[in-house]
Amino acid sequence: MLCDWFRQALSKPRKLPDSAESTSRDVSQPSSRDDPPAPGLSSALSRTPPPTHVGASSSSSSSSSGRWSKDYDVCVCHSEEDLEAAQELVSYLEGSTASLRCFLQLRDATPGGAIVSELCQALSSSHCRVLLITPGFLQDPWCRYQMLQALSEAPGAEGRTIPLMLGLTSAAYPAELRFMYFVDGRGPDGGFRQVKEAVMRYLQTIS
Fold first, then answer.
1. pTM of the model as a whole
2. Measured between alpha carbons, how far is 57 from 20 in angstroms, rounded to an integer?
3. Mean pLDDT computed over 121-143
4. Closest C-alpha among 63, 80, 97, 56 to residue 134
5. Has residue 64 been placed in a domain?
6. Residue 180 sits in a domain of what CATH number?
7. In this predicted model, which residue has the larger pLDDT, 42 or 1?
8. Alpha carbon of 137 to those of 25, 73, 142, 174, 198: distances in Å?
9. Phi/psi at 50 (nearest 5 deg)?
């Protein structure tokens, strides 16, 4: 009898405690299909931020190109006796909405500088040259020198040299300029408006 009791006791399955059973169920229970998987290293690395587009570099109104490649827009070539007319023209051009930068010899030449060097520098530092052609201009050797220097850049200087005739008839127009149209200064504004428009047209071609 006692042996039968021991045999039955050993053959019965042991009942686990409730806590152990619940732990076993929790471990063996598969995760729900709706639960998102935990992000791994590869998924974290794949979430790179969107590329940032580098904007085009702003076009520099660099001083090495276009209008600002030279110090002046206009060099006014005139004789000493025509200084007053030259000053009026410069005031008109600089006071316009375009605010043209003008070289006027008496005002802008370097004190103590050599005349030839200053005249050549004024021409090379200006986009356009206005030749204030008057009786005094034709008799001034320095004015003729500037005129010939300006013409030496032809034919590539088309539109840069602008003759303005004052107090002369067309018959007195210099032979060296016969291939160029001139601005007649006998108009109500002395031809200043036409000079300004000619300068602006040239500046637009290099902008």
1. 0.68
2. 69
3. 95
4. 80
5. no
6. 3.40.50.10140
7. 1
8. 113, 21, 9, 10, 21
9. -60, 145
